Amino acid sequence: MGRRPGQPQRHPDRKRPHQSGRHHRLPARPGRGRDHPHRRHVGLAREASINVRQRIARGEIPGPTLYVSGPFIQHAPYPGTEAFRWGVNGADDARAKVRKLAEAGVNVIKLIDQDQMTEEEVRAVVAEAHAHRLPVIAHGHRPDEIRVGLKAGVDRFEHTGLAMAPEYPADIIQLLQERTAKMSLGPLYWCPTIEGFFNYEDNAHNPLHIDDPGWQLGVPPDIVADIKASLRHPGWLAYYQITPLRAKTSGRKFEQLRRAGLVLLVGTDSGIPMKFHNQSTWRELDIWVNKLGVSPMDTIRAATYWPSVMMKVDADYGTISPGKYADIIAVKGDVLRYIDLLQRVDLVLKHGQRVK
Ligand SMILES: [Zn+2]
Predict the structure, then answer these.
(1) Is the dihedral of CA 141, 144, 149, 155 positive or negative?
(2) 120 CA distance to ligand 1 centroid (A)?
(3) pLDDT at 8
(4) Rounded to the nearest whole angstrom, what is the distance from the C-alpha of residue 115 to the centroid of ligand 1?
(5) How far is ligand 1, taken at its centre, from the CA of residue 326, in Å?
(6) For residue 140, how far is its CA from the centre of ligand 1 (angstroms)?
(7) 19: CA distance to ligand 1 center in Å?
(8) Residues 273, 308: contact at Cβ < 8 Å?
């Protein structure tokens, strides 16, 4: 839309600085956004995610400012996932699918399994997304996903991947460093979604967090019962079969990404088994500070300032500065000494209005 190059992107749902007032009960989604004024959601059905984003922006339902991807773009959706994963067949199809998402108003394009796509398809996804000023965020689970993604110019990678391999191979680190050395391209971002590796043993053997009423807020009782039943034997979940082995390698991989000059972002993968929206952000910050040796302020910036830069909304959001919206959370106590105080958020302001 009529935006000059270099002009910051306005959030597409934004109408006025202050949405009129009343606050209703939270929508039926575990812990959605109560403690954070912004959230990035990737891999959801297109209409549903955009509809929720717009209704929040219009003040019809309470919630955070959302940035959504709609469906994943990939080689082929896994059976039963067609509503939120779109396969592409050829470069023209890739371009058409990304255009369809851009015209529907998504904020980012999420790309996965790009190592199974042709080079032309991956380039078409990135070129079309960038033509619509949308960043492309890609999975970095497999070595070739990273190599292919770097070659095509994706903007951000996700997850601490490579299964049980002890570290990222030297050629990938070399490629990452060549990329981060190019100032004109801006930062390369990586969202490691790493806390689950460090918390898995406690989650499985002492799963107190499943009893937390916070994630059940506004969720219909039958869905709460269904989720709890699915987690009756936390240590038996097939999803986490190799997690204890992957966990041994994740600290080393995080350190490699840091040293390669990437801008690491706090993100959570909420929605996977045992990972609840109301718990996952503070836990990610806690692990960065207390297990991975990142300073508390750098960790907080990775959850606030850098994501706003990555989404090109830093003219309005991301720091407490004159001219930006007051989107602020506050807790009692010194979070720079005790980062896990963030699990009890005392105050939430969104666009200058108190939400909690
Ligand atoms: Zn992902």
Answers:
(1) positive
(2) 22
(3) 43
(4) 15
(5) 30
(6) 9
(7) 32
(8) no
Can you list the positions of beta strands (E) in 35-130?
38-41, 65-68, 72-74, 85-87, 109-111
CA–centroid distance, residue 9 to ligand 1 (Å) = 24
Whole-number pLDDT of residue 43: 67
Quick one: pLDDT at residue 253?
98
Please tell me the predicted confidence (pLDDT) of residue 31.
40
Say which residue the tokens 């058409």 belong to.
96
Give residue 154 CA to ligand 1 midpoint distance, Å: 14
pLDDT digits (tens, 9 = 90+) for 233-291: 999 999 999 999 999 999 999 999 999 999 999 999 999 999 999 999 999 999 999 99
Q: Provide block-wise average pLDDT over 10 residues at a time, the chain (356 residues).
A: 40 41 34 61 79 93 93 95 94 98 96 98 98 98 98 97 95 98 96 97 94 94 96 94 94 98 96 94 98 98 98 97 96 97 96 94
Dist CA 300 CA 104 (whole Å): 32
What domains are defined for the chain? 38-323 (3.20.20.140)
pLDDT at 167: 97
Task: List residues bridging with 136 in a β-sheet.
Answer: 109
Compute the distance between CA of residue 267 and CA of residue 190 in angstroms, rounded to an integer: 9
In the chain, the amino acid numbered 53 is: R
Distance (Å) from CA 258 to ligand 1 centroid: 19
Contact 115, 145 (CB under 8 A): yes
Which whole-number Å values give the CA distances from 2 to 10, 167, 189, 309, 316, in the listed order?
A: 11, 45, 27, 20, 18
d(CA 192, CA 258): 10
**Angle made by CA atoms 33, 36, 40, in degrees to the nearest 5:** 70
Q: How far is Cα 91 from Cα 253, in angstroms, rounded to an integer? A: 33
CB of 355 closer than 8 Å to CB of 23: yes
Q: Does the reported pTM lie above 0.85? A: yes
Q: Which two tokens stand for residue 3?
A: 């935006």
Q: Which two tokens stand for residue 323?
A: 């001219």
Q: Report which residue type is found at 326.
A: A
Spacing, Cα 138 to ligand 1 middle (Å): 8
